[in-house]
């Protein structure tokens, strides 16, 4: 299955969840937000949100500067 | 989603005010009604720094009647690359006072209220209570979570913006009508994981880009026009020159916010492991110099990034960035038969690297408290600070 992860096409195993995608990209699970098709998935839903074919998944990092 | 105006209109505008704000008054959506709402508005800006500078200046020019400024810091030369509310002659002056002087020059009709204390859990609710709207442009996660939770508890809206290098994010958090910051980022990143602007840098003009969006959203909320960024995160990339929005929903399973907490502990300024490692294994910059002068044989490692090393470095220091210690790559580069001395800019990153080095068996390793900044202050003031 193909999906777009942070703008790059990637091959994912079936039933890959948002939580799996986050784990593959960063060792920190806090301070990170995930948007699937431009909608943020609440963290409490990561583990049960399955990525569908052609989904656009964006992992955003909190920044603190001001 | 359009929202009702946040502020009731003032009774009237004076003749001088009508002249001053004429370019607003002839916009049908703003008009006399909108300008009177701005006049009646009380807006608190947290941090008179990179984002606080443009937001304060434009909100003052726009005719926001009362501007509160909370900042305990003083103006430093390294602020002037982006904090345009301060100038050369303000160096050393409290930022809140310097900002007030600029605002008075821009628009004498604005009442400025200064809060020169550090915002914390003991004073946030009391300070926020006097304002209609809060703008958060602080530079650390602890204050950001504090601002969020206080705004939620008081049911006040706040405009949030954050910046790093070439990237900016903006949103409006208003628990009554949409999500709050914790629905987006329930917890901060692990301490040390995401660098601050002081560690990672920021393109100065990014402050204007993001700050002007924040001021824009503040004006919309006050006057009740347009579609504010409630429930949306605006993401800006200055290199690609793209703006994107993503929707944010309230997380129905989120822990409710019921009180203010200890935000320093929540965000953990320096990882506990690093604090532990640094205890009893910290030397001063002067002690490092004495070791050099005695001709002691040690291996000095600079754990900053390459571009920081190029700005200024301690003679004899070998550059191995902190990241290599966290991945373990660094250890092969360290001699086994010499004492390892680590330093960074101000002591935070070297403490983290020290924890990793000790874990890898270099038990007599130490780090330099206060980093190269302390070296410059106490050993070689001829070097440039950054």
UniProtKB/TrEMBL annotation, chain A:
Secretion signal span: none
Matching InterPro entries: Beta-grasp_dom_sf, Mopterin_synth/thiamin_S_b, Thi_S, ThiS/MoaD-like
Q: NCBIfam families given for it?
A: thiS
Q: What is the recorded name of this protein? A: Thiamine biosynthesis protein ThiS
The species this protein was found in: Thermobifida fusca TM51
Automatic annotation (TrEMBL), chain B:
Q: Would the keyword GTP-binding be found if you checked this record's keyword annotation?
A: no
PROSITE patterns reported for this sequence = RHODANESE_3
Matching entries from SUPFAM superfamilies are given as: Activating enzymes of the ubiquitin-like proteins (SSF69572)
Q: Does the keyword Transport apply?
A: no
Q: Where in the cell is it found?
A: Membrane
Q: According to its UniProt record, where is this protein mainly located?
A: membrane
InterPro entries noted in UniProt: Rhodanese-like_dom, Rhodanese-like_dom_sf, ThiF/MoeB/HesA, ThiF_NAD_FAD-bd, Ubiquitin-activating_enz
Q: What is this protein called?
A: Probable adenylyltransferase/sulfurtransferase MoeZ
Q: Which organism is it from?
A: Thermobifida fusca TM51
